[in-house]
Amino acid sequence: MRYFHFCKLPGRVMGIRLLRFTSVVIIVLLLVAGALTALLPNIKDDKMPSLRREPKSQSQSALDSFTLIMQTYNRTDLLLKLLNHYQAIPYLHKVIVVWNNIGEKIPEEMWNSLGPHPVPVVFKVQTVNRMRNRLQNFPELETKAVLMMDDDTLVSAHDLAFAFSVWQQFPEHIVGFVPRKHISTPSGVYSYGSFELQNPGFGNGDQYSMVLIGAAFFHSGYLEDFQRQPEAVYALIDETQNCDDIAMNFLVAKHTGKPSGVFVKPVDIRNLEKDTNSGYSGMWHRAEHLLQRSYCVNKLVNIYDGMPLKYSNIMISQFGFPNYANHKNKM
Amino acid sequence: MRYFHFCKLPGRVMGIRLLRFTSVVIIVLLLVAGALTALLPNIKDDKMPSLRREPKSQSQSALDSFTLIMQTYNRTDLLLKLLNHYQAIPYLHKVIVVWNNIGEKIPEEMWNSLGPHPVPVVFKVQTVNRMRNRLQNFPELETKAVLMMDDDTLVSAHDLAFAFSVWQQFPEHIVGFVPRKHISTPSGVYSYGSFELQNPGFGNGDQYSMVLIGAAFFHSGYLEDFQRQPEAVYALIDETQNCDDIAMNFLVAKHTGKPSGVFVKPVDIRNLEKDTNSGYSGMWHRAEHLLQRSYCVNKLVNIYDGMPLKYSNIMISQFGFPNYANHKNKM
Predict the structure, then answer these.
(1) pLDDT (tens digit per residue) in B88-138
(2) What keywords sit in the KW lines (chains A, B) (predicted)?
(3) What is the pTM of this model?
(4) Residue A271's domain is classified under what CATH number?
């Protein structure tokens, strides 16, 4: 009613008209905008990794979880035992089993009959029994993080959850439970070993220059990088059926210019080798195993035209776990 | 002689003259330049920190060494005992003693009579006995790294050398030997404490959110930053004669957006309080000490308008020190 009243006011009719017109335009625009907003689709794209913890749906977000890659040869009993443990590890996204039992059927039927399982498990059938099969850039790999485990190694869920959190703080490093080192000798020839070798001589205590990938987290990008290694690296690994882990440490050290690994001291790590019925014991029992690894270090130095490995003496443990006594001072 | 010969050649006299003239000019210029270069002073400015290790001259390079800042009150016997130990720590550049014994003469005569000493020791006489005196931006401070020690705390040289190397890898953090934490309660009021408090509840094990500066390395830049804190922070520290270390942790956490500290587990750390003849025991024996620190946490949250402290559960130890058994697996 005021509307008509305003219309008739003499002397201000022009101004009022303009005001009315402008008001109408504004109101119409607001209504249109409101309508559009209501029509917008809900932004909920499942392919976008969420940045914060979402309520648990089918699978964990690719940023907050990792993929377990486990290569297996002639120890299916151990594999299945370990899978029961590893399939339930927190933050696990998927398991990729690299099946090096050439010509042998994967236990898919049995696996499915014992479902449901906490996460998808993919069996990748291989055509040749190669140590470096586990270093392929598997298309099933969706996460940034890879956890690689040997098929005879049992690491507790606590250790894995902690090491994963450490990896997230050091994503360009191999974060794992088994440290090793190289030392140089006056002749220039390198040797590979562990605590039994002399310390490299940088201050007191020991140093490590590698973290073995048979029990470690690393960035999936390094599997991509590994596909671009010189042929000589593949030839070396195939010739020895060994040293893929040393090669990975060379790759990472070269890439970062820093020590390749970060050692996390495990609270509970076990080797289940003795428990297998297959009678098969791991490659590291071969007489020439350690000599081979020294040989690999020197070959890789040739291929890389230099020694990229660097030393570290940082050992990481979990504060106050298993109990607070692990950090109490004698103060 | 060829000179005169050229002069007399007919038909090319003009061109030759120009060539001769140009040559003379060039030669003269070169001679002048050579003379000037010989006259340039030797670039050896002692005030410029060198970038790499120089042969040990008077002092260690400012990048590869640290300054010890030790505040002292009423425990000169302990101070002198500790100085004998700390003055010989590797990578130490200089010692700054913050003399809170107001009106009392510094032991300079005695100190000098017992020289020479491995590094310069500067006694900074204070006018008021304040806890935060040690957090001044001392002009004598030349290094990027500061080691701050309480005047009753003895940390072994091994621990210090290792923690310094850790600080160099985490220069924006407070790297030290004494972890503490805050917890929040349903009422929103924070509490301060150590292992005796409940865990903050992020997975298993404990967490820490502060590393005390009474036994820690940190970047000297933070002393600069501390001069720009709100007045309320100084008032709080002066009111309680406490909490300067909590305030520093708030500062660092706010600055980095990450946990302020990195905890290095000491092998050998001792409190020498009992050994003093002065009969004076540290502030932390006061009945209200811990309550005061909870009070400080809440006051600082008000001043900072939020809680910047973050949790960490990373505990760092030195690989293979004191002996290699500290990293052997039960594998």
Answers:
(1) 999 999 999 999 999 999 999 999 999 999 999 999 999 999 999 999 999
(2) Disulfide bond, Glycoprotein, Glycosyltransferase, Manganese, Membrane, Metal-binding, Signal-anchor, Transferase, Transmembrane, Transmembrane helix
(3) 0.81
(4) 3.90.550.10
Q: What angle do CA B324, B326, B327 make, to 5 degrees?
A: 80
Q: Where are the alpha helices (DSSP H) in A170-243?
A: 221-226, 231-240
DSSP code of residue A134: G
ipTM for the whole predicted complex goes beyond 0.85: no
SS3 A191: strand
> Is A17 contained in some domain?
no
Is A109 contained in some domain? yes
- A69: which 2 tokens? 């890659």
Residue B101 CB neighbours (<10 A): 17
User: CB contacts < 8 Å between A and B, how many?
Assistant: 116
Instruction: Report chain B's terminal Cα–Cα distance, integer Å.
Output: 90
Q: List the domain range (segments joined by +) for residue A174.
A: 66-316
Q: Which chain A residues touch B270 with a CB distance below 8 Å? A: 330-331
| Closest partner CB to B269 (pick from A177, A269, A331) | A331
Query: CA-CA-CA-CA torsion for A149, A153, A156, A158, nearest 10 degrees?
Result: -30
Strands (E), A5-104: 66-72, 92-99
What is the least distance, in Å, from the CA of B97 to any CA of chain A? 23
Q: Does A89 touch chain B (CB under 8 A)?
A: no
- Quote the distance between the C-alpha of residue B176 and its chain's center: 11
Q: Is the dihedral of CA B106, B278, B118, B113 positive or negative?
A: positive
* A257 token code pair: 């210019």
Does residue A326 form part of some domain? no
B204 contacts on A by Cβ (under 8 Å): 158, 321
Extract the tokens encoding A196. Answer: 């039994």
What is the rounded distance in angstroms from the CA atom of residue A35 to the CA atom of residue A216? Answer: 53
Tell me the CA distances in angstroms from A292 to A179, A190, A192, A243, one per residue in order: 18, 12, 9, 8
Q: Is residue A310 part of a domain?
A: yes
Domain total for chain B? 1
Q: Cβ of B327 and A317 within 8 Å?
A: no
Between the alpha carbon of residue B223 and those of residues B135, B137, B230, the distances in Å are: 6, 5, 14
Tokens of residue B116, six digits: 């020479």
Neighbouring C-alpha atoms within 13 Å toward the C-beta of A81: 16
Q: Of A64, A150, A245, A268, which residue is the catalytic one?
A: A245
> pLDDT band at residue A94, thresholds of 50, 70 and 90?
very high
Selected residue of B175, B329, B330 to mutate for chain A interface (largest A Cβ count, 10 A)? B329
